[in-house]
Specification:
With 347 residues, this protein is an alpha+beta fold. The protein has two domains: 2-47 and 55-196 and 211-244, Outer membrane efflux proteins (OEP), CATH 1.20.1600; 259-346, no CATH class. 53% of the residues lie in helices and 15% in strands. The chain contains eight helices and eight strands. The protein has helices at 2-8, 10-31, 73-139, 145-180, 193-196, 215-236, 286-294, 314-329; strands at residues 37-47, 53-68, 242-251, 262-264, 271-273, 297-300, 308-311, 345-346. It has a three-stranded antiparallel sheet, with no helix packed on it. Strands 7-6-8 form a three-stranded antiparallel sheet, covered by helices on one side. Helix 2 runs antiparallel to helix 3 and helix 3 runs antiparallel to helix 6. The longest helix is centred in the first third of the chain and has 67 residues, at 73-139. It is elongated.
Length: 347
């Protein structure tokens, strides 16, 4: 029956699950001593301006809010969680030993109930036989009515005792079934079961150090250790907490092919050439080059919304100088249509 109780008892299962819960909490506290790394990978694909699909990839690695344990707060919390794990294991031992003792006690109590019930049945049989004899004597005038009423009282008291013993036996059977976690197996009738059990006597002179082996004492010690570690964490909370956060990542260079292509700008500039070209170091020729170096550049948009905008940026000056060099290479008849990005340019 003890094996069945250790296998099916609900309280013991709860104690084991509590150990798992406290152990998981200890793992969380222990993980706080190490930095938490977050990694991410992103991929996207979208149509580009030229009609081709553009793919973009990015990857990153970050450390979020890692606490530098300078004053021992995290270490104290970890020690407290470890002591709680040991205390929960001792608690399981307490439940296990208590369960074994309860099953043994209920077994002995049920065995005693069986013997008392057997004794009560025999007493009731004796009282009923005595009542019959007293009734015969009363009928023949050999006994008084008082003797008859006393015999009836004893017989009824034996019946009451029998009912009480049966009730107590059923209560003990239910208690034992509750400890076993299942229905009680067949209980064979075995008179003298209690007297047949040999219980070992506690020898004299046992040292008091055996109390240290008690699991409830060990549980109290571990709870004291956990409380002491919690005090250390509370003291460290008076000091400032230092946390570190860092991140690093990279992205795919999908915008590099754009260099060397013509980029249409719907703004102050009609078109810009993003190809890398060395700037001309030769001095400008003619009045147009001189005006290009001194004054602003004005460009007109193609289409019905054409307008002039002043341009002083370096990119605009580079673009206009490129257009000017192209126009000088061509014949005068083809200079007006030399730049495919704009209809005309005034310098």
């Amino acid at each position: 029956m003890i094996e069945l109780a250790l296998k099916n008892n609900r309280d013991l299962r709860v104690a084991v699950l509590n150990i798992e819960a406290v152990r998981a909490q200890y793992q969380l506290r222990r993980a706080d001593q190490l930095p938490t790394l977050n990694a991410g990978l992103t991929a996207s694909r979208a149509p580009g301006s030229s009609g081709n699909n553009v793919s973009a990839y990015s990857a990153g690695l970050s450390v979020a809010a890692y606490e530098v344990d300078l004053f021992g707060r995290v270490r104290s919390l970890t020690d407290s969680a470890a002591a709680q794990v040991l205390a929960s294991e001792e608690s399981r031992r307490v439940v296990q030993i208590s369960l074994i003792a309860s099953v043994a006690n209920q077994y002995l109590a049920l065995a005693a109930d069986e013997e008392l019930l057997d004794l009560t049945l025999r007493t009731l049989d004796t009282r009923e036989q005595s009542l019959k004899l007293t009734q015969l004597r009363f009928d023949n005038g050999a006994a008084s009515e008082l003797d008859l009423r006393q015999a009836q009282t004893l017989a009824e008291a034996a019946r009451v005792t029998l009912a009480q013993q049966r009730r107590q036996r059923e209560l003990d059977r239910n208690a034992l079934a509750l400890l076993l976690g299942q229905a009680l197996p067949e209980w064979p009738a075995a008179p003298g079961r209690v007297s047949a059990i040999a219980l070992a006597d506690v020898l004299a002179g046992v040292p008091s150090e055996v109390l240290l082996r008690r699991p409830d004492v060990a549980q109290a010690e571990q709870q004291l250790v956990a409380a002491n570690a919690s005090i250390g964490a509370a003291r460290a909370a008076f000091w400032p907490r230092i946390t570190l956060t860092a991140s690093a990542g990279t992205a795919s260079p999908t915008l590099r092919p754009v260099q060397g292509r013509r980029l249409e700008l719907r703004g102050p500039v009609a078109a810009a050439d993003l190809r890398r070209r060395p700037q001309s170091r030769q001095p400008g020729r003619g009045r147009g080059a001189a005006r290009h170096r001194r004054g602003p550049v004005r460009a007109r948009h193609p289409g019905p919304h054409s307008a002039t905008w002043p341009m002083h940026s370096r990119a605009a000056r580079h673009w206009t100088s490129s257009c000017a060099r192209r126009r000088r290479r061509l014949t005068p008849s083809r200079r007006d249509s030399a730049c495919p990005s704009c209809d005309s340019a005034t310098v």
